[in-house]
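Hi support team,

I've been running sequence recovery on a batch of backbones for a student project. Most finish fine, but this one hangs at about 90% for roughly twenty minutes before it completes. I'm not sure whether the input is malformed or the queue is just slow. I've pasted the structure tokens below so you can try to reproduce it. Let me know if you need the job ID as well.

Thanks,
M.K.
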């Protein structure tokens, strides 16, 4: 069974802020992929894996452990860019 690596609490706070204010974010993921969309919510599945839900025309779940960087695209956001790894 694969061990789930939770992200640091302070990083979790930034994700919560992005969701609370509905920021447009650009996520840089492992495997050099990136996604953009509006931060909607954080969900935890039964197996304790956590996901950020973004809306970019459709709702997508992004596993928090796969996020390398989150940049805000919303003017006047409370933060600009957060590195996770």
């Amino acid at each position: 069974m694969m061990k789930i690596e939770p992200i640091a609490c302070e990083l979790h706070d930034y994700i919560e802020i992005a969701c609370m204010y509905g920021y447009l974010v650009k996520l840089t993921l492992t495997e050099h992929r990136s996604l953009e969309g509006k931060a909607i919510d954080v969900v935890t599945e039964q197996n304790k894996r956590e996901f950020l839900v973004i809306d970019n025309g459709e709702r997508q779940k992004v596993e928090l452990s796969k996020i390398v960087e989150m940049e805000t695209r919303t003017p006047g956001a409370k933060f600009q860019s957060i590195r996770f790894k």
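--
Follow-up from support: It reproduced on our side and the slowdown came from queue contention, not your input. Strands lie at 24-29, 34-44, 50-55, 59-63, 67-72, 81-83. No action needed from you.
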